[in-house]
Amino acid sequence: MDTKKLGFGLMxxxxxxxxxxxxxxxxxxxxxxxTFLERGFTYFDTAWMYHGGASExxxxxxxxxxxxxxxxxxxxxxxxxxxxxxxxxxxxxxxxLERTGAGYFDYYLLHSMNAEYDTLFDTYDCYNWLxxxxxxxxxxxxxxxFHDTAEVLERVLSAHPEMEFVQLQLNYLDWDxxxxxxxxxxxxxxxxxxxxxxxxxxxGGTLANLPPAAETLLREIHPDWSPASWAVRFAAGLDGVxxxxxxxxxxxxxxxxxxxxxxxxxxxxxxxxxLRQVVTILRADGAISCTGCGYCVDxxxxxxxxxxxxxxxxxxxxxxxxxQTDWTPPFSYYEILIKNNGKAxxxxxxxxxxxxxxxxxxxxxxxxxxxxxxxx
Length: 376
Ligand code: SF4
Ligand code: SF4
What we know:
By secondary structure, the protein is of the alpha/beta class. It folds into 2 domains: about 5-285, Alpha-Beta Barrel (TIM Barrel), CATH 3.20.20.100; about 305-375. The protein has helices spanning about 25-40, 55-65, 85-100, 115-125, 125-135, 150-160, 180-190, 210-220, 225-235, 250-260, 270-285, 305-315, 330-340, 350-355, 365-375; strands spanning about 5-10, 45, 75-80, 105-115, 140-145, 165-170, 195-200, 240-245. The chain has an 8-stranded parallel barrel with strand order 1-2-3-4-5-6-7-8, surrounded by 5 helices. Helix 6 (about 150-160) links the parallel strand 5 and strand 6 (about 165-170). It is globular. The protein binds iron/sulfur cluster (2 copies). One iron/sulfur cluster binds near residues 353 and 363.
């Protein structure tokens, strides 16, 4: 396995203030980036909106001002939500160059592709625009990240053979999911001969924090493998996957990831069978499959911290409730959360969040479950 197959996702960097998404702890992040490079890994993935724009600016602090340009690769993206005219494409691109100081981008992606955004990218001629950026030497490789059905992926790839690679949400829990369609999308990309970058291999942390029964099952096979490492190994072992992104938030995760990815082999049939058992346990667990991307948050008129509500709900499901009161620690965190944010029950069902959720979650309904658990 290529030792450079692990990419550092710069969307969940450590923060100095947990309530401020833009407050990246640069001192800690620099040490993490340096360690990542020292261990022979080179790929860094950012985007226009990660950490409210601070992630791209961090690329300058972590990399371009401190390391030779040919010692790492930088990927960033154009999100359709910010493109309202053809002029916006260059305005954003030029600002990305300015923010990062990268000079050029090794990989540039049309972000969050789906059927609707494909139309928008066509309307603003983004495909040809991207080819031109490549011709000018400002971008080395062009592709897109994708969140829709395999049928839509087939259509986009057939219409745009110039796209060189595809970034897919791919993990062992979503592999046979009817909504995410990891396996079908992967097979479609490979049929078109496209190399695949994997995002969300641990599904926003869901596969790093397994219910006790699932973790025990995996620890019995490999006591020293973290649950997250099982998930990354699964994705990295697939043919045609040339990079697996992991959004690392602390040094412990980085040391774990870089250690096992130094010499990880594809999973055996027995190991894959264990993961299928974990899927069965997780499906029975009833957790909400939010990846914590945060795309839904800014547009919510009720200021509901949607991903944090869902993560507390999932956390609660994994706890042993107090026998007398049914109380678990996430109840306290929920109380703190709603001091500065709307409650789950404040949702007015406007649906703005659903329109942008890459996981196609029925957010208002799921917030109803959160409200029932934490507010009644
Ligand atoms: S449906 Fe509810 S959670 Fe979603 S944006 Fe509207 S108010 Fe916010
Ligand atoms: S609810 Fe959807 S859009 Fe919001 S953070 Fe979760 S996965 Fe992302």
